[in-house]
Write a structure and sequence with these properties.
Elements: H1 2-13, H2 19-34, H3 47-56, H4 58-72, E1 82-86, H5 92-100, E2 105-110, H6 113-125, H7 129-132, E3 135-138, E4 153-157, H8 165-178, E5 181-187, H9 190-205, E6 209-212, E7 231-236, H10 239-244, E8 251-262, E9 271-273, E10 278-280, E11 283-290, E12 295-301, H11 306-313, E13 319-320
Helix pairs in contact: 1-6, 2-3, 3-6, 4-5, 8-9
This protein binds S-adenosylmethionine.
S-adenosylmethionine (SAM) binds next to helix 4 and helix 5.
Length: 330
Amino acid sequence: MTHAVLLAALDELLAGRSTAGLLPRVDRLRSAYRSQEVPDGHVLRTPDDAAAYAAYRMPATCAAVRACLLQARAFLPEPVASAVDLGAGTGAASWALAEVLTPSRLQLLEQSSVAADLGRALASASGVPALQAAEWSPWHATAGRVDLPGADLAVAAYLLAELDAATQAAVLDAMIGAAPAVLVVEPGTPAGYARVVAARRRVLDAGLSIVAPCPHEGECPLLDRDDWCHFATRVERSPRHRRLKEGSLSYEDEKYSFVLAARGGRPAAANRVLRRPVQRKGLVDLALCTGDGDARPQVVSKRAGELYKAARKADWGGPWPPEPGHTVPG
Ligand SMILES: C[S@@+](CC[C@H](N)C(=O)[O-])C[C@H]1O[C@@H](n2cnc3c(N)ncnc32)[C@H](O)[C@@H]1O
């Protein structure tokens, strides 16, 4: 439901702005994010920047957070009645939180007042009570100071990329201190994955347990393989979104890396599907991260009966097998 409601709210809010007028802003944001450099000031400086971000990135970042939460929701040790959204931007992660975990209290922290203003307007058009009642506060994180309110879940979505390494570590420590569950989502690039790996080490060192995506708590087996753990979620594009992306497809695949950890949590999957499964005649090739801390392929043949049927439906990023109790041959 969220995606359609979000696209409708964006359309309504941006109705007075021409797509052509937003394109130069989108280009500037795109180059800022692609440069992979830590920005030396606010990226979202003007109302047009915030509008461009909301139109060009928010549906995809919201969809990525939604996908992470859906993987973990049933495995969180405690219900999430409150959540704090750090570097909330225009509120994408909170839209996903409101849909998947339905917390009654959402606290959004953001340094850019223009992003927060636009986010507030979108939230109030959402018709979703938790979003309409969400509390927005000005917030700026530095390596020396990260103030956070307590909550059941702390979320940093696409934030760490904008922070230097010392501030990333300080933000992580503050999240761990403020909440029993922590979610970090980053772009599904090698650099985003590296930040997630560092965050994963930090939450494990602090005594939290991994809920998703990893089915184990050892070192990531992809680290020494010139590979990176990432997933993708398909995002339907509105006509405005398509024009802003200068693309003809009616959808895009948002790639993301993430870690969700909780005190007293346990892995949501016995094994995790690491790539889009490949179907061949009578066979399905699965690339798996396994519960014993390895990453290896499994070929499921038609002779495996029910398991083969399950493999044909397996998704990139999903648990394997869909039902527990199956081990992957070594
Ligand atoms: C790429 S946007 C992500 C926004 C939103 N979380 C999402 O997923 O769409 C990064 C956000 O982090 C905020 N940010 C960057 N550096 C920050 C800092 N040092 N303190 C607080 N917020 C910061 C930016 O203003 C921006 O809104």
